């Protein structure tokens, strides 16, 4: 009963993060940093989405990978449903695929490192999962090779200075991916603080075998 109650809470939190990220992704970050116009490469959704990895890791720590996968699949259903109503089919496919693959990889890495120093599992799990998430989403959504998912976005594949500030040029979606992953790394490091603070509160309910 207690496990079901906590799992439901994690599912609700994951749903909240997915919904919030789908809304906030529509709002560019109006700021500049080192001459880079962040509004060109970032949205507020980039800051909320990485919290999903914290929720997954806390579930994994407390109840193991099986429960964590349930939470991830619940978020997947909500995310894909929202994406198909609010975005083009290609973006919805990219978003759902990247979310599912990234979160499941996070669970696997976390479970392998759970017996090591407390920070290794959540840090490396979220970073490796975020890397896969970023590569899959921006490739599926914008790379010309994946045109079978939907028509290419001319603005996204048009070449421009990387991050709008360097002399080297690349398709705009490359800059978007770099900016997005940079935020995920930063937020992933910050999320170690609440994870560490909650470790002694949300203790494993039963022994979990690393696999």
Quick structural summary:
By secondary structure, the protein is mostly helical. It has a single domain, classed as Arp2/3 complex 21 kDa subunit ARPC3. Helix content is 66%, strand content 5%.
Descriptive notes:
Involved in the import of queuosine (Q) precursors, required for Q precursor salvage. It is a multi-pass membrane protein. The chain crosses the membrane at residues 7-27, 33-55, 67-85, 91-111, 123-149, 181-202. It is found in: Cell inner membrane. There is one protein chain. The protein is mainly alpha-helical and 211 residues long. The protein has one domain: Arp2/3 complex 21 kDa subunit ARPC3 (Orthogonal Bundle). It is 66% helix and 5% strand. The chain contains nine helices and four strands; from the N terminus they run αββααααααββαα. The protein has helices spanning 2-24, 45-48, 51-63, 65-86, 89-113, 120-142, 154-157, 172-190, 192-198; strands at 32-33, 36-37, 159-161, 169-171. Strands 1-2 form a two-stranded antiparallel sheet. Helix 1 runs antiparallel to helix 3, helix 3 (51-63) runs antiparallel to helix 4 and helix 4 packs antiparallel against helix 5 (89-113). It is globular. It starts with a helix and ends in a 13-residue tail after the last helix. The model has no long low-confidence stretch (mean pLDDT 91).
Structural category is mainly alpha
Instruction: Provide the number of structural domains.
Output: 1
Q: What form results from the Cα inertia axes? A: globular
Provide the CATH top-level class. Mainly Alpha
Spatial separation of the terminal alpha carbons: 26 Å
Going by CATH, the architecture would be Orthogonal Bundle
Major β-sheet annotation: 2 strands, antiparallel
InterPro entries: YhhQ (IPR003744)
GO molecular function, one term: transmembrane transporter activity
GO cellular component, one term: plasma membrane
Subcellular location: Cell inner membrane
């Amino acid at each position: 009963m207690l496990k079901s109650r906590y799992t439901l809470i994690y599912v609700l939190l994951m749903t909240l993060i997915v919904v919030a990220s789908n809304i906030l992704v529509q709002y560019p970050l109006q700021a500049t940093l080192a001459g880079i116009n962040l509004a060109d490469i970032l949205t507020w959704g980039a800051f909320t989405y990485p919290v999903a990895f914290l929720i997954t890791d806390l579930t994994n720590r407390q109840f193991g990978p099986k429960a964590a996968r349930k939470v991830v699949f619940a978020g997947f259903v909500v995310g894909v449903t929202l994406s198909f109503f609010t975005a083009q089919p290609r973006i919805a496919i990219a978003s759902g695929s990247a979310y599912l693959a990234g979160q499941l990889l996070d669970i696997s890495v976390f479970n392998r490192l759970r017996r090591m120093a407390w920070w290794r599992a959540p840090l490396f799990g979220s970073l490796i999962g975020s890397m896969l998430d970023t590569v899959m989403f921006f490739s599926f959504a914008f790379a010309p090779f994946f045109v079978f998912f939907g028509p290419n976005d001319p603005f996204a594949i048009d070449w421009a200075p990387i991050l709008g500030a360097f002399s080297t040029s690349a398709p705009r979606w490359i800059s978007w991916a770099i900016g997005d992953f940079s935020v995920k790394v930063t937020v992933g490091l910050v999320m170690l603080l609440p994870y560490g603070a909650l470790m002694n509160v949300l203790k494993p309910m039963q022994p979990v075998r690393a696999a």
